[in-house]
Amino acid sequence: MSEAGAPLLELRGIGKDFGSVIALDGISTTVRAGQVTCVLGDNGAGKSTLIKVLSGVHRPTRGELLLDGQPVAFGAPREALDAGIATVYQDLAMIPLMAIWRNFFLGSEPTTGWGPFRRFDSATAKEVTRRELAAMGIDIRDPDQPVGTLSGGERQSVAIARAVHFGARVLILDEPTSALGVKQAGVVLRYIAQARDRGLGVVFITHNPHHAHPVGDRFLLLNRGRSMGDFAKGELSREELTGMMAGGDELTELAEELERPAGR
């Protein structure tokens, strides 16, 4: 993808304090249309705080957030969503016993009729759900089946397709592969690629470099709220990315310690 033009979303020196605690400091990166920006870090690295800044839950203490090249300051998640920034959290905000199509339109149900005769247009909802999932390469057996009967990867795909349908331009995915096996994680990575290929700017939050590197175009590495670097894909091999995530020299020392012969 070309780097020409203004990014969809740009972070410039973003910092967030909670009293005397510095949760984020000096975080800068870009999110472009048709690209995936991966944000990597272990627990406590600041990934969750960054998600909340981007999605309008927290205002940054310092730094600047730009959308389409213009500074923005979201006061609430609804404002970020109205601007086209959608976040898919780990819990997916779905009701397991409800049908797939009901979950797809949860809170934004289509209606037919007018005034006191207005009612939920279930036929349209089912058709749109089936069509939008098919556009993402997802073939559901029956839109009436409870969403809880789907696999973890399939539920993630429904959440991604829902965000795309409701106008997301920037899609933030919070550890979408963390609780999945190898096969289901592969399913989700394909759907991330589908969203990217449809022109969205994707922010993929993860602690797994093996999941990030195949789909990522840009990599922001966090450690205790600070940036370890912001790299384009061509600047960082998978081995280098893994080494930076794993602690590099620390991991080598640990391996040498564990491999010492017994009795020494």
Automatic annotation (TrEMBL):
Q: Does the keyword Chloroplast apply?
A: no
Keywords, A to Z, come to: ATP-binding, Nucleotide-binding
Its transmembrane ranges are none
By what name is this protein known? Monosaccharide ABC transporter ATP-binding protein, CUT2 family
Question: Sorted alphabetically, which Pfam families does this protein's record hold?
Answer: ABC_tran
The family database entries (SUPFAM superfamilies) matched by this protein are listed as: P-loop containing nucleoside triphosphate hydrolases
Q: Which GO terms describe its molecular function?
A: ATP binding; ATP hydrolysis activity
Origin species, per record, is Modestobacter italicus (strain DSM 44449 / CECT 9708 / BC 501)
Output the superkingdom of the source species: Bacteria
**ABC transporter domain span:** 9-249
Q: Which PROSITE patterns match?
A: ABC_TRANSPORTER_2
Q: Which InterPro entries does the record match to this protein?
A: AAA+_ATPase, ABC_carbohydrate_import_ATPase, ABC_transporter-like_ATP-bd, P-loop_NTPase
Is Cell division there in the keyword field?
no
